[in-house]
Request: fold
Amino acid sequence: MVIEKIETFLVRLPLHKPFITGFGEINTKETVIVKISSKKNAGWGEASTLSAPIYNHESVHSVISFIKSHAAPLLTGRLISSPSELHTILKPFVGNNIAKAGLDFAVYDLFSRERNVSLAKLIGGNKKFIEVGGDSIGIEDDLNNILRKIEIQINSGRRRIKLKIKPGHDLLPLSKIREYFPRIDLMVDANGSYDYSLHKDVLCELDNYNLLMLEQPFPANAIYQHSLLAAEMKTPICLDESITDLTSAREAILSKACRIVNIKPGRVGGLTATVEINKYLQEHNIKCWCGGMLETSIGRAFNIAAASLANFDYPADISKYDHYFEDICKEEIFPIINSRIEVQHHFKPSLVKASKRFDKIVSR
Ligand code: OSB
Ligand code: MG
Reply:
């Protein structure tokens, strides 16, 4: 298959309510949709970055600029015989993994359509269903509202609750949650907002709340600080922002910085990198799970395929589209039933449906 054309579309999706995390506040989720055309077909992907470089160094602008200035000139007119080739072709460029993932996804979708096989099958995912956890509960002062949100999630069948924390918003909400829900599977995500020398003691106190895991307490490049904390805590450390590729995954595992990894296919450069990192983790007895970046249905299709791989052993962060006033697709393309999403093992037109609706909007 020869790549004929690469296009990017910047999409703005207003959220119902601001989503507050340890790295800041998101009011509007922006994302970049990527379309790659061959002579006969088109494949769609999503580079699910944020508007500004607050989660990692990428932003909607850096993604579009990377694709236009560096990737498209290298890829246009090129013959691709397997979707995993893209990962190798883009390797000389450092970082920019969210942008690379948008391209990798679009090429996987293109192969999936041309060969009539599902995304899960292309990467070797075998699960029939994947389990999803509750939507991340952002930082807010009203603890009763946090309890209400947890109750709603539990009543709708979610078996894992994820709370965002930051310094000053940790022990108090956790005590309150444990008072009302002593036994739920509960995890916390700090998005890198703590510092080892300032907050080691308060972090060690998290051991009193029987947490499933503590995600990313320190900034992305603080692998050594994570390894110091991991040696002192009973709660398993999970890394998200720190794991950007196979090298950083190896670095974290060799330093014993974490016992669990949150793999976001978008953050690590796409599905080929996801398979490669997962294989390494599996060989080292490290479990993982599929995180999310508030993707639209287009991006979610690739997360579901990733979560269908063996070794993805905890519920995924695949939130419902109603984070937004309206998704670009207006209806749930991947319905969540009893906290599970069915994995498509035969080529089904869900992603085709999502991208058709999107195509209609952008060509107006
Ligand atoms: O740290 O997992 C994170 C959203 C945007 C950026 C980073 C993160 C998140 C989430 C939401 O926690 C996960 C989702 O439901 O898509
Ligand atoms: Mg996270």
Notes: The chain has twelve helices and eleven strands.
